[in-house]
From TrEMBL:
Lineage: Bacteria, Bacillati, Bacillota, Bacilli, Bacillales
Protein name as it appears in the record: histidine kinase
Taxonomic source organism: Pullulanibacillus pueri
Superkingdom: Bacteria
Stretch forming the signal peptide: none
Domain EAL stretches: 24-277
Amino acid sequence: QVKKAGRNSYQFYCSKQKDQSFRRLELETQLRKAISRDEFELYYQPKLELTTGKIVGAEALIRWNHPEKGLVSPGEFISIAEESGLIIPLGEWVLRTACMQLRTWQEKGIAPFEVSVNLSVRQLYQPNLVERVRMILEETRLDPKYLELEITESMMADSDHCLKVLNELKSLGVKISLDDFGTGFSSLHYLKEAPIDTLKIDQSFVRHCTVDGNDATIVKTVIAMAHQLNLEVIAEGVETKEQLIFLQRQLCNVAQGFLFSRPLPVKVFIEQFDEMEKVVSIHGLPVGIQN
Ligand code: C2E
Ligand code: MG
Ligand code: MG
Ligand code: MG
């Protein structure tokens, strides 16, 4: 009896593993075709300036319109794209599409704001990354100051190489933002050395900052430190008006989260623009009250 159960669970485990690696392989094959089949789409989530309530930026977040599965979120395929190297062409597609989109908005007079694009660590090891970014800026005729590249702390683990690439990117005139701040390999040394413009406080700290004393302290301290270091600071994952007010009181510059808007397809983003700009004045402290 026991033996049988044991064998069954062993088989179950095996086939489950097989299933998983098969699924990955299948996803990788489909991912490979997805670029040429035009199955990717960028969604945009606004970043709001807390003193004015205005949209000052938008983060481009990739979505995959899978022919059978429907909308697939990046959590399900970015790691596969990274491991397979597909992140290189995919990352380039994201950069070009986001820059083109912002140019289109600028031409329509919609956007005096910047667009942020997430970079994968693998891209920092792409030998010609800086050259490719330069070319995309040139092709799309986007002023580099409107492009922000979001990197994560783990990217600074190999400090020498990454610092060099970041400095080269920075010299193109783009901005660099440190995403998910506080969750990864973090060293204040790199914060001092790396050409960082913006600290992005991770949503895991923002989520409970109005109910958990430790999270409140972390958020306050990161904001204060960012200001002292002359960095911009943005809070991600803002979902409640209490969080918004907390952040305003701490003089956080910018916020992003479902309270203002979920990431949206281009067309909806533009339609919702005015509504999104009302959120801070509706739910937050009166705009213009802080400095
Ligand atoms: P991220 O860069 O930290 O992006 C923020 C994530 O938090 C997004 O998830 C966004 O939809 C979600 N989010 C925003 N506001 C809220 C909120 O108020 N509450 C909650 N619960 N979530 C919120 P998404 O779009 O699923 O992206 C997940 C991650 O995938 C991103 O994290 C980023 O690391 C990666 N990613 C997305 N697009 C790209 C891309 O084009 N290239 C690369 N390399 N990575 C990407
Ligand atoms: Mg990001
Ligand atoms: Mg983030
Ligand atoms: Mg995050």
